[in-house]
């Protein structure tokens, strides 16, 4: 039996590619975005596709999207929490409003949709949740404090969730992409802090310039990543974490090495706190 996918942020980029790959595999797809017309234009017409509007920051809309999926296809097998954007700026440069908006979409939006889907997956005693993190979910990049914070949050809540739902037959996979050639780094998906502080030019300023330079030149192919999602949904034991892209793998290995080095360096003090 074909699977039913619910994908957020499916009007463009990785979300749209995942929807195309799932449809090509013969599955059925509920593709969501803030503008359903944009989703339809991106994916084309199909009797196995339902394009609906969803602002993930609004709980009611998440509930309505799940109801529409059930009304149309009768079940949900795969949830892909893909909707999100980046906020670039040093921590001090980012306003409270800018940071809160970032967390409302990247973290609370993911939670709204996941909570709406979980009763369906529990009743089925099956399902697979993909939460899109980033190399920013394990690598603190200067100039992207808020964005990294949201992705570290996604990593932590996903790991806990995976242990909560595993006895119910539900899988959770955190996907940590590197740089993929989509429009994510364009103005469509990247916001810049309104405030710029010259003292951070060598950190946050450098990050802003580097982002502009790499846009359109990313080494990784989003179509291949989308196909990997189809592969992972068919795995008997899918991974908790999947790191995507040679750049992300290299950064993860460096991050793990640095953490191990610091752990070893301070081990004697770290283990010295037992009662006498």
UniProtKB/TrEMBL annotation:
<dbReference type="InterPro" id="IPR002347">
    <property type="entry name" value="SDR_fam"/>
</dbReference>
<dbReference type="GO" id="GO:0016491">
    <property type="term" value="F:oxidoreductase activity"/>
</dbReference>
<dbReference type="Pfam" id="PF00106">
    <property type="entry name" value="adh_short"/>
</dbReference>
<keyword id="KW-0560">Oxidoreductase</keyword>
<dbReference type="InterPro" id="IPR051911">
    <property type="entry name" value="SDR_oxidoreductase"/>
</dbReference>
<protein>
    <submittedName>
        <fullName>SDR family NAD(P)-dependent oxidoreductase</fullName>
    </submittedName>
</protein>
<dbReference type="InterPro" id="IPR020904">
    <property type="entry name" value="Sc_DH/Rdtase_CS"/>
</dbReference>
<comment type="similarity">
    <text>Belongs to the short-chain dehydrogenases/reductases (SDR) family.</text>
</comment>
<feature type="domain" description="Ketoreductase">
    <location>
        <begin position="3"/>
        <end position="183"/>
    </location>
</feature>
<dbReference type="InterPro" id="IPR036291">
    <property type="entry name" value="NAD(P)-bd_dom_sf"/>
</dbReference>
<dbReference type="InterPro" id="IPR057326">
    <property type="entry name" value="KR_dom"/>
</dbReference>
